[in-house]
Amino acid sequence: MTADVTVVIPHFRAPVLVECLESIFAHTEPAVPVVVVDDGQMAPSLQAAVARFPQIQVLHNPRTLGFSGACNRGLQATTSTYAVLLNDDTRVTPGWLDPLLAAAEANPRVAACQPKLRSATEPELFDYGGAAGGCIDRFGFTFCRGRLFARRERDQGQYDRQTPIFWACGSALFLRLAAVRQVGYLDTAFFMHFEEIDLCWRLQLAGYTILAVPASVVYHHSGFSLPPRSWRKAYLNHRNNLVVLLKNLDCGPLCRILPARLCLELAAAGRYLLKGEWSSVLAPLASLGWLLAHPRDLCRRRRQSRRLCVPAGRASAALQGPGVYQGSVIWAYYVRGVRRASDLLPEEADG
User: How far apart are CA 130 and CA 167, in angstroms?
Assistant: First the structure.
């Protein structure tokens, strides 16, 4: 299949960049342009990549812009119909691009697709970040087909059906660029974490569809950018999750769930304390403090997002539709003992 696609790789010093590029050039036919956005001041990993693959285009950021800013710089420099945001710690597999391109070409309302993401270090398991596609519950907590909280499922083909989802993971995110330009690029104020969920939500508000395409498989190393238990990672996850809701959710549902979310944020701080995760204890409290200190910024970002909403996007505006669990994933996991996403959102039979 002739591909009008550019691969954009935001790079911040991950030592596996060469391995990522090797897989792209070995498993992508016909060859596609590859843009590496340097967010780490020409680290040795990038120097090795340029020496090995002189055909790549490198964009050097004058300062560290974070994941969102680096991705946007690459997307804005792209003139193809489609782009794939691909983390520098991923490894693609034979034929990975064709199913994504076919899904987008089959339906002009498909704005984003996600391949099946499996762990690069434990390949029989789904990747933590995106697994087989992103979901959300009625309180705005996110999870994946194949991963609930820290519990990842073994890939046994249980999520091999192409299906609409709520969000696609930024580690390997196939995008229709005309749709992205319509709704706006990644929100750079997130810096990292939840920016792709926000983008997918805005695309749905504008009437587009997000797809999981499991016929495409990509392996991912998690945790190269920030250590899993770092304070900053916990802080950004808590803060940005709340910002996504404040930006994109209808007023009625937002007013109903905000009191519960605030209580759950305080409960999260207590849970970190009980588990001895001292570096994360203050993260939920700091995130609430940031929200209280930035009301004008939040109102501005909400106005920009809500202007996109069309009748076809009303379901996502109210947290309904594909990939939305109409219950609490926290209650299901910690009280009911549910360990599989398919028990919350059953997979429909093909045909």
Answer: 9
Please name the residues in contact with 252: beta carbons below 8 A apart, sequence gap of 6 or more: 318
Quick one: CA dihedral 157, 174, 117, 217, positive or negative?
A: positive
User: Domain limits of the chain?
Assistant: 5-220
If you ran DSSP here, which 8-state letter would residue 118 be given?
A: E
CA distance 128 to 219: 11
Cα separation, 339 vs 348, in Å, equals 19
| DSSP-derived secondary structure letter, 172 | E
- Is the pTM for the entire model greater than 0.90? yes
> 5-220: which CATH topology?
Spore Coat Polysaccharide Biosynthesis Protein SpsA; Chain A (3.90.550)
The encoded tokens of residue 187 equal: 């929100």
The pLDDT tens digits of the residues spanning 282-327 come to 999 999 999 999 999 999 999 999 999 999 999 999 999 999 999 9
**Contact present, 126 and 312 (Cβ < 8 Å):** no
Torsion of CA 154, 157, 158, 164, to 10 degrees: 120
The closest of 91, 121, 111, 118 to 167, measured between CA atoms, is 111
Radius of gyration, alpha carbons of the chain: 19
